[in-house]
């Protein structure tokens, strides 16, 4: 004979078992890349606080640090075989703060606030275009992502370029005195161009995998990324600016060659576009 409390316990246990069967399987390994993704968001949050406190230099370097965490979360996801829809969504949300809102807030607070409403519109371009790019990635990454290239400038690259622009020129504003609006006359076209590149279909290099096969098959690209790293470590903000200018010019050049040769795919036809 079972007492009522025993019957309730067994009913509860059976209900829990049924719930477990209906739940989708969870890859516990996603905790590793998710930690780096959240550190990306935390760095972006600290960047916004630093900028609001008037410490623009710290804010710019925290945006760069967020970019480093963004690289690590991708590497960890591949190494742990923990790529998931959850990771894609979490990464996009964090990127929107660290690489959309934070750099837009940086350039507005530093300089573009002088232009009033025009400054607001221009400084809003990075988060607005970044949101479009991330939304496209979320849709297309599940279908057929490209293997070796990003299509469109990655939003972390755009953010770090804005941070590098500030770090490079914030103590050299005299260089822009001959322009009508000073540094803003150079900053506005710079922002417009890199925002447009985010929503373009130009190809930009992905960071190669750090495994034996990739190093052997893509030795040139691997060496190029090591050179990028050395430039950043040696020349700091100037290295950041130089690296991303080279990165962007390479993407524009390859895109122009593909456009004029109709070389969009192995048979000259357009392939599925990955807006990652």
- State which percent range the strand residues make up: under 5%
Which regions are unreliable across 5 or more consecutive residues at pLDDT < 50?
Answer: 265-276
- Helix-and-strand structural type: mainly alpha
The H/E string reads HHHHHEHHEHHH
For the termini, the CA-CA separation is 62 Å
Q: Average pLDDT across residues?
A: 83
SSE layout:
Blueprint: H1 4-22, H2 31-52, H3 56-79, H4 85-110, H5 117-140, E1 149-151, H6 155-169, H7 183-198, E2 203-205, H8 212-217, H9 219-235, H10 237-261
Antiparallel strand pairs: 1-2
Helix pairs in contact: 2-3, 2-4, 3-4, 3-6, 4-5, 4-6, 5-7, 6-7, 6-10, 9-10
Molecular structure report:
With 276 residues, the chain is mainly α. It contains ten helices and two strands; from the N terminus they run αααααβααβααα. The protein has helices at residues 4-22, 31-52, 56-79, 85-110, 117-140, 155-169, 183-198, 212-217, 219-235, 237-261; strands spanning 149-151, 203-205. The protein has a two-stranded antiparallel sheet. The longest helix has 26 residues, at 85-110. The protein is globular, with a radius of gyration of 23 Å.
